[in-house]
Specification:
Elements lengths: L1 E6 L2 E4 L4 E9 L4 E9 L6 E7 L4 E3 L7 E6 L4 E6 L8 E11 L2 E6 L3 E6 L1
Parallel strand pairs: 2-11
Antiparallel strand pairs: 1-3, 3-8, 4-5, 4-9, 5-6, 7-8, 9-10, 9-11
Length: about 120
């Protein structure tokens, strides 16, 4: 079992910045990758950014050049630095951990944190 606790959401004006944090606890040694997803009202949850244990990263096209994902392995924490925010970034952001359990990869999710960008 892995537990994820997020923080850092809030209300910001367009062009502003926010940093989200997600700290994992429990069987953290089994985590293969961590990332952030978001879900806007009436839309499906979508991948925002992911970082592997090896440090490889991937981003949604819509956030490339504006968002940066990073991790502090000593603190079991992943961050999402969001710059030049746009109203269309408004969503609930969820932290995700892909955990190896026996021979399967299992998704764990945080509780979500609201990000609202005003125009």
């Amino acid at each position: 079992q892995v537990q994820l606790v997020e923080s850092g959401g809030g209300l910001v004006q367009a062009g502003g910045s926010l940093r989200l944090s997600c700290t994992a606890s429990g069987r953290t040694f089994s985590i293969n990758a961590m990332g952030w997803y978001r879900q806007a009202p009436g839309k499906q949850r979508e991948l925002v950014a992911v970082i592997t244990n090896g440090g490889s990263t991937d981003y949604a096209d819509s956030v490339k050049g504006r968002f940066t994902i990073s991790r502090d392995n000593a603190k079991n924490t992943v961050y999402l630095q969001m710059n030049n925010l746009k109203p269309e970034d408004t969503a609930v952001y969820y932290c995700n951990a892909k955990v190896l359990e026996v021979a399967l990869i299992v998704d764990y999710w945080g509780q979500g944190t609201q990000v609202t960008v005003s125009s």
